What does this fold into?
Amino acid sequence: MTTNRYDNLVNAELLGNLVWYDGPLVALYRAIDGDLYLVSWQDCTDTENTWLWLSVSQCLAILYLRGEVDLLECFNKAEKMVLATVDMDNRARWETTCFANLKREDLPDPGCVLTILAMMTNYKH
It folds into this structure.
């Protein structure tokens, strides 16, 4: 039994880092309840990183993995969105959000699809 509303995500299983550049930029996780989440790095400061967790259907995840839909479409079709701000001690603050709350600079560019090259770079970690 979870003790807070975000335990489902805190204990999620990393299925794979999909885009990597000096660290993961997009990853796929399976939450404790079985939901799939695309996790997109959003921003950082000297002491924190901010990640956006996008709950996506299995079908949408597969289409993204095949490069048939772009990341922006995943943002648009996300069933749930949660911002996680993680500090240097790996403590996270969680906040539910929605597409309408995102600023233009928080969104990926149209046409930002997963490619074999992007997937291959994740093995450099």
DSSP finds four helices and six strands in the chain. The chain has a mean pLDDT of 87. Residues 23 and 125 are 7 Å apart (CA to CA). The radius of gyration is 14 Å.
